[in-house]
Amino acid sequence: MALIAFNKPMNVLSQFTDRGSESARATLSDFIDRPGVYPAGRLDRDSEGLLLLTDDGRLQARIADPRFKLEKTYLVQVEGTPDDAALGQLRRGVVLTDGPTRPARAELIEPPALWPRDPPVRFRKSVPDAWLRLSISEGRNRQVRRMTAAVGLPTLRLVRWRIGEWDLAGLAPGEWRLV
After folding, report:
1. Most buried among 14, 28, 93, 167, by the most CB within 10 A?
2. pLDDT tens digit string along 13-48?
3. Is the CB of residue 134 less than 8 Å from the CB of residue 105?
């Protein structure tokens, strides 16, 4: 059984081929040359960070299926300054168009020591930004972005740092390792 931790860069698709695009976009095959492994879940093209890949279908299902409530932790740069009310809403769960979310673990953190993003986040001197550590145990489409927007804090940068027991420590963007 193989399990790969991959630090997916921004603007890379969470699949090995790019179907339906006139211009070729970066895919997992640009970084990982290991036949028979498939992503356990997905990470949006405009998000960065940990993506797990495996050749074990049962493990893939256990990681990706929300029924198993495997916690995922994100480092989220948001526009605005989170207050106790916004953090409280995230901690209780917020109502999205597809229903209420499960409660999240949410905390304001110092800006993390991350690699530069390409392209960089647009800096606006007149608009403050802050960083959150947000942990969720479900995986709806664009859920973290929708949750922060629902409490008035649009996401500027989203980095998935941890899935269950696996994390991104020591992996630069585009690098992978067997775990």
Report:
1. 28
2. 999 988 766 678 999 999 999 999 999 988 999 999
3. yes
